[in-house]
Amino acid sequence: MSATDATSTIWLRVRAPFAAFRPLAAGVFRGTTRTISHSAAYGLVLNFAAVDSRGDGARAVTAKRAGLPMLDLAIGDSAPEGKGVAAREVAVLYQQLHGYPVGNSSADLAEKTHGAKYHIAPARRELLIGLDVVIGARANDEDGARVLERVAKGLSGELECDRYGLPFVGDNNLMIDRVDVAGAPFSACWYTPVRPGDTAREGTVRLTSVIDRDDSARTAAGLFAPSERATVDVPPEAWVRAG
For 239, which of 18, 71, 98, 220 is 20 to 30 Å away at the CA? Predict the structure, then answer.
């Protein structure tokens, strides 16, 4: 599918030296998917358009604002047309991770630290090096179309409204180097769903499309894998409803 097939579609190429897109998980290992998820891409698009997705702040968990438009998103790893993507390098960092104890867990350590943090354990974090992804965003209604119309203006600083934070790629310490906007697709290896009965596909990864922080059972995720060769033609099955 090309941009001319839809009335409201934009194409973004996002590059960053480091990125981390972490699945919902707990523990001392914090891995990353090997590309941006649809839910993270959705958040980026809203940020570029200066649309604050945060709901009521008086809660333990940041809620998503009601009434945000759903978008159809296509995700691809940028590559020269006809060629595949070089293996993405993954780095590993180690740090001391402070957690909040449940019940009386580690309570015997509190006195020894004289008021300092005491519930600390070594943590392992993965980082993607050299992120270069393509995001196609397609509106489903007038609200979505208005959001997409704001993206290019938001990136160029032409929107006269308050902004609530810098865009980042999975971690608020990981900033973006460059974003290119186009009216036609960039060449990429596009991620499409892995269906039951499919043969094994290299690069298969689980990507979230909808995040529900109040009820994780409502979070939507699926298995996806990139095409072997890059194209500017986006497979119809690459489009995923996200929001």
Answer: 18
